[in-house]
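Example record for the data management plan.
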Amino acid sequence: MKFLEKMLAAERQNQTLLCVGLDPEPQRFPLHWRGDAGRIFDFCAAMVDATADLALAFKPQIAYFAAHRAEDQLEQLMAYMRRVAPGVPVILDAKRGDIGSTAEQYAREAFERYGADAVTLSPFMGFDSVQPYLQYPDKGAFLLCRTSNPGGDDLQNQRLASVPGQPLLYEHVAALAQGPWNLNGQLGLVVGATYPEEIARVRDIAPTLPLLIPGVGAQGGDAATTVRAGWRGNATTTTGSVAVNSSRAILYASAGEDFAQAARAVALSTRAALVPEAWSRTG
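Corresponding structural encoding:
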């Protein structure tokens, strides 16, 4: 099954747009594991168990593993997710952005070593930084487009005088991803929940691409506004899917023995807030 097909199947199966971000910080673990990096797998596996039937996707952030020399635990976690939640795609949040043989190695890392279904990429070295990932036709790649950080304005919101129509840079990235770069229908875009008007603009430019939308929860993005801006479809068919990511609000809902149950409760409430109007009208 290709990545986008798997994402749409998970949306239908779990009736959800929620992407659960896996950003393990040992210093924020439950008190009985606090500060123990050897428990990264155990903590993340508990999150997977608590939310697998609520999630459209899981999104482990590679830096949170690498910083603690826990790449082996990430491999273990990836295998665990494939085993216990085979219908939920996994997006490896790596934000790679190199070219040539180096990009080929990063693609091998994401798709062969870790077995991810999709990966996040920085496209600002051009198509050369994207093409090696497209050699894996069943996999997906989300390109950074309009990110949720304030500093994104430094580049993404600048106008390109040399391009017909003088689009903003993020608009140009969206157009390339919807058009000439999307050779095998593998591309999606990362758009931050803190900019709902720009989510809507990206959706106008790229009406069919999946959007990965971080920033709901601890970063302050509004769930309902995000869905209205980005999701397109009707009661039975999605024409423009979104995966709305929440990480810290779910992972660190409690520091007690009930941490997994508390995470599930937050995931349930977040999923409920992300219901498209087309779904809610069907009852």
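Summary line stored alongside the record: The longest strand covers residues 140-146.
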